[in-house]
Design a protein that fits this description.
By secondary structure, the protein is an alpha/beta fold. It is 34% helix and 22% strand. Helix 6 packs across helix 9, helix 7 crosses helix 8 and helix 19 crosses helix 22.
C-alpha cells in the first residue's frame, strides 16, 4: 500500500474515528461529523475498506434511494496489552474498535530472567492463536522499572536480573512482531486517563497525575493527552521513601501528602489518582486530604483526588490503549482524535477480582487482611442497610456509590451518614473504583442488569429482594452467578427474624407433625405511603405488589415447608387507590419524606403516583413440590400493619400474633373448640424495629460468606422460587385466575447453589 500523505491521513483518521463513535453510519452522517465533502468521505471509505478496516452493512431501508451503511470491521485485527509485575502477569487482547476479547492472569511468575521471558512469550502466543486469523497490529508490554525508547529496561528494582535487559528487542525477535515496552506506572496513568476520557469526565487533551503509594512514591503523568516520560524516561521515579515498614498503614501518609501537594502545585492536573499498590488502607484518601488541608494555603485551588477506577487492571488497560493508538497510527498514518479506551472491561475486572495482581506482594498484607471495600448501587430508601457493614469488628468500609439521580450526593449523606464516599454514575465506574463487594438497593427493575454486571466483574453481590421482576431475569442472575463462580446473596432478611426462626424451630422439633398447609395474611397498613407514591405503583418498574410484598412471605413459607411452589392461581384488583385523584411526581423524594401516620383513612391519601396500574388487594393459592398447599393474601389499606402465618401439620398448628418484639406464637396440639390460649405460647424476642433489625444479621452472614465461605440461611434458590411463584401468580391474577406452572431451573444450577456455591 502506498504511503498516505499527511493531510489525507488526518482525514482518514477522522472518518475512522467517526465510525468508532457511531457503530453504523451513512455517508451523509459521516459528512456531518467530519465536515468533509461527499466525494471525500466516499473515497476514504473505499481506502478503509481496501485495508479491511471497515465494511458495508448494506442499504438502509426507507423511501427513495437507499443509503449504504458502514461500520468498522470486527475481523480487522487485534492488539495485545500485557502488564508484567514482580510475581504476576495480566494480559488482554482487544479488537481494533477496543472490545476486549481475551484475558489471561498468571500468578507465581518466576523471577528468573529466562523463565519470565519464556512465560511472557507463551502468553502472547496463546492470545495470538486464540484470535487467528485476525492479524496482530500492536503489542505493548507494561512492566516495572525504567524503560528507554527502545524497550530496554535500564533499571529494575523488582527483578534485578533484568537490569539493562533489551526486553523489547528480544520479544520482537522471538515473536516476529514489533513490541513496545512501557513503565507500569506510566501505563496505569494512561489507563486511568483513558477510562475518564471514555465517560467524558476528562477531555482527550487533559492532564492526569497518577500516584502509586507503597513504601515509596512513584508517579505517572499524562500531559495534554500524552504520556510524559521525561528526558531520561525517569519522570515518575520520585524516589521518596514514606516508611521503612514492609507496607503502609494508617498514619503514615503525611510525607505522601507533602509530595502530592508540591507536585500538584507545579503541574495543576485536572485529576489526581491515588493508588495503593498493596491494597486499600482504610481511610487513606481521607488522611491525605486532611494533611493537604493543613499543608496548603486556604487560597489554593482544591485538588481533585480520586481512587483508581480500574483497580489492578489500570496498567493493562493503559497498555491496551497505547497499543490501539500504535495500531491506528500504523494503519491510518495518523492518530485518531479520540483516546481509544478499551470496552468490555468486565473481562479484566473479573479475573483481577479472583486473583491478586499487585506490584510487590507483601507478607504484611496477607497477615493483615485489608478492609472489605463495599460499593452501594442505589442510595434510595433501603440503602441504609449499607451502614451495617461498618459495624465494629466487621472490617468493612463503604467506599463508593453508583447512582445517576441528581440528588445522589445529598442522599449519600442522608442515608449513609458520610460525605467522603465516592459517587459514580454507573455500575461500570463503581467496579472501576476497586470495590470488593457490592450491595444492590437500586429499583427492582434494574436488579438483573446491575447484578449480572457485578457478577461478571467478579464482585460478590448482596442483592436486596425481590431478586428481579421477570422470571427470565431471575434465571439470568442465577446462571451468571453459576457461570462466573462469583458469590451471590439475596437479602431475604425475614429468615433471620425471630418470629420465623422460632416457628421453623417448632416445626423441626415435630411440635405440629408433618406440615400440610401454610396460610399467610399480610395486613399492609402502610401500603398507601410505601407503594403508591413512587415507581412501585407501576407494572413497568415492579410488575406488581403481589411480587414486591409476597416475595418475603413466599420465601418464608417455602422455608417453613422445606419445599417450593410449583403451581399457582390468583385473583385481585385495584380496588381503592385508583379513586384517589390527588397525584404528584415524587421522583425527587424518598419514601421517608412523604410518609405520615396521619394519612388515614386511605381515601384521604394525597400525592399518589401519577400512574397506578398495580393491584392493592390480592390473594393467591399455591401447591408446593412436597404436596403442601398454601395461601397468601395482602391488602394495602388495612388500619394495622403486620403479617400472620398459620402453619398446620398432621399433629397441630402454630400461629403468630405480631411479627416482632412484643408479639408471640401460639401452639395448638389438642382437639378442642375455640381456645384462645392454646397449649403453649412463645414470646417473640428481638426485632424491635421490625424485619429491619434482621438486616444486621444478613449483612454479617454475607460478609462471612464472602470472606470465609460460611454457609448461609438465605438462599438465592429460595429467592428465585419466591419471585417465580409471585410472578406466575400475578400473571394468573391478570388472566382470569387461570392456573400457572412455575418454571423449573437447570439441575446443574440447582446443585451449585445447594452446594453453597461451590462447583
Amino acid at each position: 500500500m502506498p504511503p498516505v500523505v499527511a493531510g489525507r491521513a488526518e482525514r482518514l483518521a477522522s472518518v475512522y474515528d467517526a465510525l468508532l463513535a457511531t457503530p453504523s453510519a451513512t455517508v451523509s452522517s459521516l459528512m456531518k461529523v467530519t465536515q468533509l465533502s461527499r466525494p471525500t468521505v466516499t473515497g476514504l471509505l473505499e481506502v478503509l475498506r481496501d485495508q479491511g478496516l471497515v465494511h458495508s452493512l448494506g442499504a438502509e431501508g426507507g423511501v427513495g434511494r437507499p443509503a449504504e451503511v458502514w461500520a468498522t470491521a470486527p475481523s480487522a485485527g487485534v492488539v495485545i496489552g500485557v502488564d508484567l509485575l514482580h510475581s504476576s502477569l495480566l494480559a488482554a487482547t482487544a479488537q481494533l474498535d477496543g472490545t476486549v476479547t481475551g484475558v489471561d492472569l498468571r500468578q507465581d511468575v518466576s523471577l528468573d530472567a529466562r523463565q519470565r521471558l519464556d512465560l511472557l512469550i507463551e502468553v502472547i502466543n496463546q492470545q495470538i492463536a486464540r484470535h487467528q486469523p485476525s492479524p496482530v497490529h500492536a503489542i505493548v508490554i507494561s512492566t516495572t522499572g525504567t524503560v528507554d525508547p527502545e524497550g530496554c529496561i535500564k533499571r529494575s528494582d523488582a527483578v534485578q536480573e533484568w537490569e539493562s535487559f533489551p526486553l523489547g528487542a528480544r520479544l520482537t525477535e522471538r515473536l516476529g512482531l514489533p513490541v513496545r515496552v512501557e513503565n507500569d506506572v506510566n501505563a496505569a496513568a494512561f489507563g486511568e486517563f483513558a477510562i475518564r476520557c471514555s465517560d467524558h469526565s476528562l477531555t482527550s487533551s487533559a492532564d492526569l497525575l497518577f500516584i502509586g503509594l507503597s513504601r515509596g512514591i512513584v508517579t505517572g503523568l499524562v500531559l495534554g493527552g500524552q504520556l510524559h516520560r521525561g528526558s531520561h524516561h525517569d519522570a515518575g521515579e520520585v524516589g521518596l521513601v514514606i516508611t521503612e515498614d514492609e507496607t503502609l498503614f494508617p498514619g503514615q501518609l503525611r510525607r505522601a501528602a507533602e509530595t502530592i501537594g508540591a507536585v500538584s502545585a507545579v503541574l495543576d492536573p485536572a485529576t489526581i489518582v491515588v493508588a495503593l499498590t498493596h491494597g486499600e488502607i482504610p481511610g487513606a484518601l481521607d488522611e491525605i486530604r486532611t494533611h493537604l488541608a493543613t499543608l496548603r494555603s486556604s487560597s489554593a485551588a482544591a485538588l481533585n483526588l480520586e481512587v483508581p477506577r480500574l483497580g489492578q487492571a489500570s496498567a493493562t488497560v493503559g497498555a491496551l490503549t497505547l497499543a490501539l493508538q500504535d495500531a491506528r497510527q500504523k494503519l491510518l498514518g495518523h492518530l485518531t482524535a479520540r483516546i481509544p479506551c478499551p470496552s468490555n472491561l468486565t473481562l479484566l475486572t473479573h479475573v483481577t477480582a479472583k486473583g491478586s495482581h499487585v506490584p510487590m506482594p507483601s507478607s504484611a498484607t496477607t497477615q493483615h487482611r485489608p478492609e472489605l471495600r463495599i460499593g452501594v448501587v442505589g442510595v434510595g430508601a433501603r440503602s441504609d442497610i449499607a451502614k451495617h457493614f461498618e459495624l465494629p469488628g466487621r472490617n468493612c468500609r463503604i467506599t463508593a456509590v453508583a447512582d445517576p439521580h441528581p440528588n445522589a450526593s445529598q442522599r449519600i449523606l442522608d442515608r449513609l451518614g458520610r460525605d467522603d464516599i465516592a459517587l459514580t454514575r454507573s455500575v461500570t465506574e463503581l467496579i472501576g473504583t476497586g470495590i470488593d463487594a457490592a450491595l444492590v438497593t437500586s429499583p427492582d427493575d434494574t436488579h438483573a442488569t446491575v447484578t449480572c454486571e457485578l457478577l461478571r466483574a467478579g464482585v460478590p453481590v448482596y442483592l436486596e429482594k425481590p431478586m428481579a421482576i421477570h422470571t427470565a431475569d431471575a434465571i439470568e442472575i442465577l446462571t451468571t452467578a453459576h457461570e462466573t463462580g462469583t458469590k451471590l446473596y439475596v437479602g431475604h432478611n425475614m429468615r433471620h427474624m425471630n418470629v420465623v426462626r422460632s416457628m421453623r424451630d417448632l416445626i423441626r422439633k415435630g411440635e405440629i407433625g408433618e406440615v400440610k398447609a401454610i396460610w399467610c395474611r399480610h395486613f399492609v397498613g402502610h401500603g398507601g405511603d410505601y407503594y403508591f407514591k413512587d415507581w412501585h405503583a407501576t407494572r413497568e418498574h415492579g410488575t406488581g405488589l403481589l411480587l414486591q410484598k409476597a416475595a418475603h412471605d413466599l420465601d418464608v413459607m417455602h422455608w417453613l415447608a422445606d419445599s417450593h411452589t410449583t403451581r399457582v392461581t390468583a385473583m385481585g384488583g385495584l380496588t381503592l387507590y385508583d379513586r384517589v385523584t390527588d397525584r404528584r411526581d415524587h421522583s425527587d423524594q424518598l419514601m421517608w419524606e412523604w410518609f405520615s401516620m396521619d394519612n388515614w383513612p386511605p381515601l384521604s391519601q394525597q400525592g399518589l403516583n401519577p400512574v397506578i396500574d398495580v393491584e392493592d388487594l390480592s390473594m393467591m393459592l399455591m401447591q408446593m413440590e412436597s404436596g403442601v398447599f398454601a395461601s397468601y393474601q395482602q391488602c394495602h389499606y388495612t388500619p394495622d400493619y403486620w403479617r400472620n402465618y398459620t402453619v398446620i401439620g398432621t399433629e397441630g398448628r402454630i400461629e403468630n400474633f405480631g411479627d416482632y418484639e412484643g408479639g408471640h406464637i401460639k401452639l395448638w396440639r389438642h382437639r378442642s373448640d375455640y381456645d384462645p390460649d392454646g397449649d403453649a405460647t412463645y414470646p417473640i424476642t428481638g426485632d424491635a424495629g421490625g424485619h429491619g433489625d434482621a438486616d444486621v444479621l444478613t449483612t454479617g452472614e454475607f460478609i462471612d460468606f464472602v470472606t470465609d465461605g460460611t454457609p448461609t440461611d438465605t438462599s438465592p434458590l429460595g429467592a428465585y422460587h419466591a419471585v417465580a411463584a409471585a410472578i406466575a401468580a400475578t400473571d394468573s391474577l391478570r388472566d382470569g385466575s387461570t392456573p400457572r406452572d412455575v418454571p423449573t431451573l437447570d439441575p446443574e444450577v440447582v446443585q451449585y447453589f445447594e452446594n453453597n456455591q461451590v462447583k
